[in-house]
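pls read this protein:
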Amino acid sequence: MSKKMITLKNMCKSFGNVKAVSDVSLDIECSEIRALIGENGSGKSTLTSLITGAQHAESGTIEYRGVTFSSKGILDAKRNGIAVLLQEKGTVNGLTVAENILLGVENRCKGKLGISKNKMNAEALKVLSRIGAESIRPQTVVDRLSFEDRKLVEVARVMLDEPDILIVDETTTALSLSGRETIYKIIRDMKAVGKTIIFISHDLDEVINLCDSASVLRDGRFVKTVDKEEMNHDYLRSLMIGRELGEHYYHENLENHYAGEIVLRVEDISLSNKLKDINFELYKGEILGLGGLTDCGMHELCKVIFGATIPEKGKVVAITDGIEIEISDCVSAIRNKIAYLPKDRDAESLFGSASIRDNITVTSIDQLKKGIYISLRKEKELAQKQLDNLFIKCSGSEQYVNELSGGNKQKVVVGKWLANDSEILIMDCPTRGIDIGVKSTIYSLMKQLTASGKSIIMVSEEMPELLGMSDRIIVLKDGAIANMFMRNQNLKEEDLVRYII
């Protein structure tokens, strides 16, 4: 008979009038990979924060290896063998890789004259090698690392003391295929030696392929635990959202529907070893998909188009009513109604410690001005309009953005640019880390925007999304355009893969 690793009994947690977790009970066994799935705001992250002690339950109990357990916080949980990997950036700028990995436990590397850097580096290298990330140098300052390598540093930190329970909270959405495989190997190795993994993900493919079971939450309540044999996309989706998504999840038009008017032209863009002679045009009312491997240059291209990165060669030209204007920086991009929704929304697009209102209205200051003053009434009205239009779940426009779920944060980013009446939206992985219900909302919004004549450049690392939403797809490989595909019913994933890899 299997032994229970952790038992949650009648867990409850509220924020104001919102019941984030309501009477949730779960049993999770040793040697089990248990998925925790549900829409954004369903209570997944709140529930795991109760386990780690990052939040404290109003009622309910936790048993860990058969003994009542209550953590004083994340560090205390880690000392007791419960570690968590978060979705967003968790490294500390200005510190080295080794200092990040040994954060809080530096004393184990004492030398004759205090903390020994050499011992820290050696200890860090040992754990990096153990997880397959030995290419990351312990003495490197983390600011110089890619987003993915920073994630692997976080993995090394939580694996330093080989925890008994690992909570993976949307970590894989930020990683390339190789990065994901690193996480998957760690998870399978932990399972093999009797440890437990709680795996939070919106990617149902990886849930079905990786996990032994899946517990579904909806509106803070437990719905059902599904065994591996029962798992399939449609069943899990229906449990998560409580309804069928319908037939028109993606773009229903099989033929191109956009106008012949060009609104943006990218000419001969080159950037060190990242981009090589990129040329294409964007049409009014079009969704232009950009696809490829994570390091193919598509994310860098977005920054160039928005003026955030200056190319070594070439130019980006916005065209309005036949008038051509070269985009030289972010200010000129915004003035020409170009919006940018970056992949790493928390670091690059949101002010987490500011209100929803401040985040939504930051790009619309000119239209809110009354002389030299900003009209607070207009500011509140503009923010509330986006809250209503995008169905953002919050307590009000004064709530801090860092208190929102991932899907609602993404809606705030979208609202910021819709408030500015942007005509061209550069959307870099717009559905990364959001659930199936919010994905459906974002897709519907994209269709509405293009139907009204707005144009979208959409970067995606998900093949079904690229095929389902794009009017044209440009595949990048090693910084160059490998091929371009028109939308048609015969286009398959393997057609793209041939040029991606």
Remarks:
- Residues 169 and 200 are 5 Å apart (CA to CA).
